[in-house]
Amino acid sequence: MSASQTANINWRTINIDALDPESAYNFDNSSLTPGLAPVTAAEVQSFGQQIRQLLRGGDSEGALRGALETAPYGGDAEAKELHLATVVEILQSIKQADMSPMLSRIYTSQGGVELLDALMKYIYKGMAQPSTGTSRALSPQATGFSQIQSRGTAEGGGQAMSVLLSWHEKVVEVAGQGAIVRVMTDRRTV
Description:
Blueprint: H1 3-8, H2 41-56, H3 60-69, H4 77-93, H5 96-108, H6 112-128, E1 135-140, E2 146-151, H7 157-175, H8 178-185
Antiparallel strand pairs: 1-2
Helix pairs in contact: 2-3, 2-4, 3-4, 5-6, 5-7, 6-7, 6-8
């Protein structure tokens, strides 16, 4: 290079990390998350029907375990919302007195830590929803304006939030605060 060519290069704009093979700049981020199998909304609906059948048969622990084992990590937003509704329905159907013993049995079983972590993810996702467990509909009024009404539970989203908070307390009681940290740091979403 001649002196005039060297003077024209702005050395401060060169990314030296790109030249270092040991640099984090050259690290493949896809290796941080495992490959997730794609799941369709139809498959989630099918799982949901099977899980609801267990729930109707009186096997609430089996229904909860089945729902947590089939979490659609690779699903689209619609599939994840359908599965969230199924999990919230299961949580609402379980009596408060049965929560701790059921969670203890799940926690001490094979893969129990991962199942309670998945449950904690669903609890947080349910809390983030504006009105979990209720459907909202527009009803026309005589004034010409439409009013949003909630249908479903009598207390609207407040009852679902109360149930989710109770479950959160019981999961932390059984699995410890590590469950919260693992959920916050896991890249997979439900």
